[in-house]
Design a protein that fits this description.
The chain is mainly beta and about 400 residues long. It has a single domain, classed as Methylamine Dehydrogenase, Chain H (7 Propeller), CATH 2.130.10. Helix content is about 5%, strand content about 45%. The protein is built from one helix and 33 strands. The protein has a five-stranded mixed beta sheet, with no helix packed on it. It has a four-stranded antiparallel beta sheet with strand order 2-33-32-31, with no helix packed on it. The N terminus is likely disordered.
């Protein structure tokens, strides 16, 4: 009875905020929004405001506010911005002291995306050495902060929290060869008190954000994937319900999980890669005791951009500008189409039956989420884009290299 009640509360918490974009890639990390895409005219946005400093944190939109993390140009500060979603006016800014540190060329000192439950905003900060998790109210007052200790990775930090039913979840995965560790952590959203922590086997740093796997008639579970395994945990206790060990072929290098796994029906799909161009995607059946592999793909799948699903199909854009679609049940690729000679870091989003993808240099492409490829329109924002966009109530929020744009009706 208690587990059924818990599931009901979890379902309520994820659906009640469906109109908002409450975390990295929106509701439950699916990258899927209600309603159609607005017209994207870079010369006539609803508003356009300069964003101080540098960062690739994605915007979230909650209760009429836009929250965004960034870092100062000199690397000595980390900032959380709160803007009015209707006008783009900055309402307040929080600053955290930091230092410039080594990171991947595509990374930044502010790459994590905040999350919100509609009451507080939760941020992961990396000061160049240590990580911390902090909560702020909508007036900008810090409610609590929790040190997570030193973080070690050859690519820098880039993790984002997720919050469900009063608990904030953090996947903190570092590089084992640099002395880094890996763990999934759970904190009380109101007090910051640690509820539980489970160690994971560290190998290559991964950055996937936990998501809630909802199972009608069964307890919900928090799912996270890293280089070593994909695991489903009991949200209340951290007990592993199942674990699928990532099995790398002999002579093949284990790969990173940057984009978050996703569910399609009863299946979990996890996609991996590295900067050298290696790719691996696996469809997993986690039901019935021991999880098993249903299919796998080893080329033309994404590394950094996240996947999407609609009507039993998988959609993605690769890091080198290829759009693709596959039948999720069998992993059968239906089509692959070149969007252009572009690189892609931002994750695409799904609105209705259309997918929007931004390329690194600012080009954007809208194509149908269907069994046959159809390019609907394309354009150019006019500045680089590495952050994933947000779509709320017909308004699209896009973070460029220097500005935050809002497109949509007046």
């Amino acid at each position: 009875m208690r587990r059924s009640a818990c599931l009901g509360l979890l379902l309520l918490s994820t659906t009640a905020l469906a109109a908002d974009w409450t975390r990295f890639r929106g509701p439950n990390g699916t990258g899927t929004a209600d309603g159609p895409l607005p017209d994207i005219n870079p010369k006539a946005p609803r508003w356009k405001v300069a964003v101080p400093g540098k960062g690739v944190s994605s915007p979230i939109v909650v209760n009429g506010k836009v929250f965004l993390q960034t870092g100062s140009d000199d690397g000595k500060k980390r900032l959380l911005l709160c803007l009015d979603a209707d006008t783009g006016k900055t309402e307040w800014t929080k600053e955290v002291v930091g230092q410039k540190a080594k990171a991947h060329a595509k990374n930044s000192m502010a790459s994590g995306t905040p999350a919100s439950d509609g009451t507080l905003v939760y941020c992961l900060w990396w000061d160049g050495d240590a990580m911390s998790l902090a909560a702020y109210d909508f007036a900008g007052n810090e409610k609590w902060s929790h040190s997570l200790g030193s973080y070690r990775s050859d690519h820098g930090a880039g993790h984002s929290p997720a919050v469900y039913d009063g608990t904030v979840y953090v996947n903190l995965d570092g590089s084992a060869d640099l002395g880094g560790s890996a763990a999934l952590l759970a904190f009380d959203a109101q007090t910051g008190q640690k509820k539980w922590a489970v160690d994971r086997k560290a190998h290559r740093a991964s950055y996937s954000t936990p998501f809630l796997r909802e199972r009608p008639g069964k307890g919900a579970e928090v799912v996270v994937g890293t280089t070593t395994e994909v695991t489903g945990y009991d949200p209340a206790t951290g007990k592993a319900n199942w674990a699928y060990e990532m099995k790398w072929p002999a002579g093949k290098m284990p790969l990173r999980v940057v984009g978050s796994p996703l569910t399609v029906g009863d299946m979990v799909v996890c996609y991996t890669g590295d900067g050298g161009g290696l790719r691996y995607t696996v469809g997993i059946d986690p039901n019935g005791g021991v999880p098993k592999k249903l299919w796998d793909l080893s080329k033309n799948t994404p590394y950094v951009p996240c996947m999407l699903t609609r009507n039993g199909l998988l959609f993605w854009t690769t890091d080198n500008g290829l759009a693709a679609c596959a039948e999720a049940k069998a992993g059968k690729v239906l089509w692959e189409e070149r969007l252009g000679a572009v690189d892609v870091t931002a994750s695409p989003i799904l609105a209705g039956n259309e997918i929007l993808a931004f390329a690194d240099k600012g080009q954007f492409f809208v194509f149908k989420a269907d069994r046959e490829f159809e390019l609907v329109r394309k354009g150019d924002l006019g500045q680089p884009v590495s952050a994933s966009p947000a779509l709320v109530d017909g308004r699209l929020y896009v973070r460029g290299a220097t500005h935050l744009f809002c497109f949509g009706t007046k």
